[in-house]
Amino acid sequence: MIGRGLVRCLWLPIAGLSGCGYSVGSLARRDFRRVHLPIFENRTFYRDVEIQLTHDVETELVSRPGFFIVPLSQADIVLEGTIEDLRQRVLSEGSEDQVRESSATTRVRVALRNARTGAVLKEYEVSDRAEFFVPEGEDLGTATDESFKDLARKIVNGLETDFPRSSGSPEPTDDKETADV
Question: pLDDT, tens digit, for every residue of 117-154?
Fold first, then answer.
């Protein structure tokens, strides 16, 4: 027979973990797990950055439990992205006006649409800034690589936060049309 003290010792760690905010499984809504991901739109003058960011979002999506990238005909939602802005800023220069340190800031608008109706379920904007140090061999490419991985994480995090249900059932919603993730 197990003594009361031993049962209490075994129960307390389990009870403690249940209140820590951890959960098992996906944070994705059940009705929005199958995601269609078209190539992002690029409104900047930098070529092919939309391909890299779309790839990084795809990589982030498949790393999260509960999300599946599927063709449009099988999708619950469509994740559309538009790279609105990509700016490079010089932070410091050397004695002969050579760039020593610079940064790249990228801003992306995201729309989540119901795949069957096309209705916008949620819109939000994400941005990220990455610095690079030229004397260490870093450049705009290394900065955007780092920044796009962070942007992809922020974009997919937007799928894991609440947004209005498309079924028409009323739910309390935030009056803001866009949200920073």
Answer: 999 999 999 999 887 766 677 666 777 788 899 999 99
CA 177 vs. chain centroid, Å, equals 18
HSE-up (13 A, CA, CB side) for residue 130: 19
* pTM attached to this predicted model: 0.70
End-to-end CA distance of the chain: 53
Domains of the chain as residue ranges with CATH: 26-161 (3.40.50.10610)
Q: Which residues contact 156 (CB under 8 A, 6 or more apart)?
A: 57, 60, 61, 64, 67
One-letter amino acid of 12 = L
- Strand 41-42 versus strand 77-93 pairing type: parallel
pLDDT in tens, 15-24: 444 445 444 4
* CB-based contact 103:131 (threshold 8 Å): yes
Which of 87, 125, 91 lies closest to 105, judged by CA? Answer: 87
Q: How far apart are alpha carbons 32 and 12 in whole angstroms?
A: 36
The CA distance from 109 to 33, in Å, is 21
Residues with Cβ within 8 Å of residue 105, at least 6 apart in sequence = 85, 86, 87, 89, 127, 128, 129
H helices present in the chain, as ranges: 4-18, 49-63, 140-157
